[in-house]
Design a protein that fits this description.
Blueprint (H helix, E strand, L loop, with lengths): L1 H10 L30 H10 E4 L2 E4 L6 H15 L8 H22 L23 E3 L2 E3 L1 H13 L4 H4 L20 H13 L5 E4 L2 E5 L1 H4 L1 H4 L2 H11 L9 E5 L8
Parallel strand pairs: 6-7
Antiparallel strand pairs: 1-2, 3-4, 5-6
Helix pairs in contact: 3-4, 4-5
Protein name: DUF547 domain-containing protein
InterPro entries: DUF547 (IPR006869)
Keywords: Signal
Length: 259
């Protein structure tokens, strides 16, 4: 019976109780603000240009079409990023570094396990997805996707729009942005990503007197503040949500964002 209960728990959707909290890893909270060095993300941009397609409200990735040459290009890009010491760059340069790395690692992970119906099917038998597994070594430290998101990006930058920048290869996730993040375009990219998600049905869908929000807003409500703060954030991009006081429920689609 205990085994059956464990198996059932593994098949349930990601819950607010299991959403990782922001927990700073101080080792990475160092920067060199005098540095003018930049990191090239052109290889990642080339991949995005070649394999991202818009379909309705979704940006889909053509995993099945990725050539061996471009798979090697992606792996070479990830290796290049892993060879750097991000703390030696400015905070602005670091932000784009970590966001692009997270997204590139996620795409590469799907390609390594393709075909798959969902990223949640990847990982050990007793895990919900691959987020907790060591996936890359940087500056001598083994990191997971969870480390990048919840121990670096969220606690260091404290910007809830980071949730719109990271893509988990799922239809319910904010779209993978067509422009690689750079220190120069981060603000524009974040605003575009936030606006696009909140104005999509997967971000916020109003039906009768019920508002269906993405589960992101339930899992990570601490990043947005109290419910009043959340609706202030949402209404900044979608005015009709200002002062909403009806019923709210949450949903998320874990199906692969593939084509």
């Amino acid at each position: 019976m205990r085994l059956l209960i464990a198996l059932l728990a593994l098949t349930t959707s990601f819950s607010v109780l299991s959403a990782p909290k922001a927990n700073l890893w101080p080792y990475w909270n160092v920067s060199n603000e005098q540095s003018t060095d930049t990191i090239s993300h052109q290889s990642w941009q080339n991949i995005l240009d070649e394999y991202l397609v818009m379909e309705g409200q979704h940006t889909l990735f053509r995993y099945s079409a990725v050539s061996k040459k471009d798979k090697r290009l992606l792996e070479k890009y990830i290796t290049m990023l892993s060879s750097l010491t991000p703390q030696s760059y400015s905070k602005d340069e670091q932000y784009s570094y970590w966001v692009n790395l997270y997204n590139a690692l996620t795409v590469n992970l799907i390609l390594d396990n393709y075909p798959t119906k969902s990223i949640t099917k990847i990982g050990s038998f007793f895990s919900f997805g691959p987020w907790g597994q060591n996936i890359i070594s940087i500056d001598g430290k083994e990191l997971t996707l969870n480390d990048i998101e919840h121990r670096i990006l969220r606690p260091i930058w404290n910007d809830p729009r980071t949730h719109y920048a990271l893509n988990c290869a799922s239809l319910g996730c904010p779209n993978l942005q067509p422009l690689a993040f750079t220190a120069e375009n981060t603000e524009r990219n974040l605003e575009k990503a936030a606006n696009g998600f909140i104005n999509s049905d997967k971000g916020a869908l109003v039906s009768s007197n019920t508002l269906r929000l993405s589960s992101i807003y339930e899992w990570f409500i601490a990043d947005f503040g109290a419910e009043e703060d959340l609706f202030e954030h949402l209404s900044k991009y979608r005015g009709e949500l200002s002062g909403y006081d009806g019923k709210v429920n949450y949903d998320y689609d874990w199906k692969l964002n593939g084509k």
